[in-house]
Design a protein that fits this description.
By secondary structure, the protein is α/β, with parallel strands linked by helices. Helices cover 41% and strands 16% of the residues. The chain is built from 28 helices and 22 strands. A 6-stranded mixed sheet has the order 3-4-2-1-5-6, sandwiched between helices.
Length: 717
Amino acid sequence: MTSRAAEIAAEQAYFDAAAAHRNRRRDDLRHLPSAAAHSGAAAHLRRYADAAQRALGATDEAVAFGRVDAETGDTWYVGRHLIRDAEGEVLVVNWQAPAAAGWFEATPENPAGVRRKRAFICAGNTIEEVADTILAEIAEAVDAQLLADLARGRTGTMRDIVATIQAAQFALIRAPRDQVLVIEGGPGTGKSAVALHRVSWLLFQHRDDMSAQDVLVVGPHPTFVRYIGQVLPTLGDDGVELRDVGRLGPDVPRGRTEPDAVARIKGEARMAGLLARALDARIGAPDPAERLLVGGRFVALPGVEVAEALAAARAATLPYGGRRGLLRDRLTALVAARTGLDPARSEAVGNLTDRLWPPQTPAGFLRDLLGSTARLRAAAGDEFTPAEVAALHRRGADRLSRETWSAADLPLLDELAHLIDGPGRRYAHVVVDEAQDLSPMQLRAVARRSATGSLTVVGDLAQSTGNWARDSWDEVLTHLPTVHPARITPLRYGYRVPRQAYETAAPLLPVAAPGVTPVEVVRDGPADTGVHRVGLAELAGRAVTVARGHAEAGRFVGIVCPPRQRRPVEAALAANGMTWSSADRGELGGAVNLISPQEAKGLEFDAVVVVEPVEIVASDERGHRLLYVALTRTTGHLDIVCTGDPVPLDAPVRPRPSMDDPADATFTRREAHRLAEHLAGQLRGAAPPAFWADVLAELRASLLPEDAVSSGRPTDG
């Protein structure tokens, strides 16, 4: 019987030979431009050579991750990229090729002609271990490689999962293109990675009519987009456009804050009608006679003829800007017919066009609309209440260049760009991740970028939070293209979240999302969940101490904390001389990363420290879902630092604000208790006990009106 060492040595020889052919091909490509007849041809060949070299993969990458032994006796190696020898014979098939399907699809119930699979665990192109199994043990073989991959530390970027794709994932990756495919999956099911690998699969299968530039991937925020940014290039697919949902529209200054209630109004689909009506209202009406100075003399155009030209432009199936150009052409023709002159160089026709059909830009129009109660009221019609119209009104900056825009404004600007200038760039396939949280106006922005109705929609209803938290995919699909049928397919197995962490988070599901089925977790983590109960004054310091311990052990750490704890945690990090990356600045990749529960969606860390779960729950109408997200970001270690319940099931939930309720009405007795505990800790640390009464008296005097302090009467506040 061949020894294990001998088998590994034989496989290594094959790997070395394949790598040598890969390097030979790389050298050939490097010298290809020098064979060009002229500079233009050289540039073309250089672009081709660069793309072909990327398609070969990195020089230090393993040539294959698996081997398939068929029942026929045939054997083939499967890798990320195709490798041929000098005669053109295939040494390694790329994972998208039909020959590789057996590696992913074969199951004990359906062997598909596969006798054995061999998984290679490598460091670079050096084989460290092989996992052999006959088909009856295939699940164990796949799990062995998956577990080896999970044992590798996380970084600030998502890795490809080609070597560890499971059969259920592969079925979604190779699903037909012409559909709206909803990939629903709980934490750790690999849904985002599956969607990206589906892009690579589609690009390979449809390479004759679709290129990387024909695909758009939309993420929830810039940090997530950076996190997934290297997956497709690693698979050899450069050129796919990746954008966060806020970058779909015009490029404008951002950062304006506004109440959630206002943001929700702006996110509703009825805003599209308001914008269209408001834009149409800017079109004027002609005078009974329009006098124009053309060629040194006045020309009178009957108002009836001008009105007819205006009506024809209105009726055209063109965007606002195109119809405006049509009106100018018709006015030019009217003047030419009356004078016999060519008025193209005359300012008169342009001035009349501007008065009847003013030129617009998305930013300028929206600034003026939101700044005018009268225009808002006229465009609102019966679809908005007076209170909603009043909420939408705001005073704009004195100059358009100084205007800043909120996140909820951005889809409105995109809608206006579509109305004014017409369709922008459209794509053959669109992927939208964390789609369960997008507003109808954001979904409209995604939908209008689809040229064919082919979409991959990714998300998890149990993680749906914010102003647009949803309990059904129908609420999302109603705003997406209906060219092709929609199919909702769940991923059942959780591969990346360890059992201990998921069991900590699972009790939240019946409260957070009663209709969602828990995932089936397939592996154990290295340790049980750590729970650290402390006083409020110690909260930030203990969180940082725990995070530092993980970082010193070489782990990629995420500290997930609610807004109220962010500054204390930052101060504690600074006091401990630690550097950290901050997701709110689009950073991710340091040993320690500070993130909000909302920013945590879709991210992974070796170790996660969750700060004050009660505040996470209280921060959002679906706060239990936010906590569920926070607790399931780890692939290894989970710690909870809290003053009370680590997994609160009945904590106060902050209601969705209305137009009539002030935000501070949501302050609860429990929050008052925590604040008092915090202040008491500060007092104990800053003043001797003999002076506590004096400090409290001064504090009371500074907070309460003078008459209330002197009389001892309580106030209404």
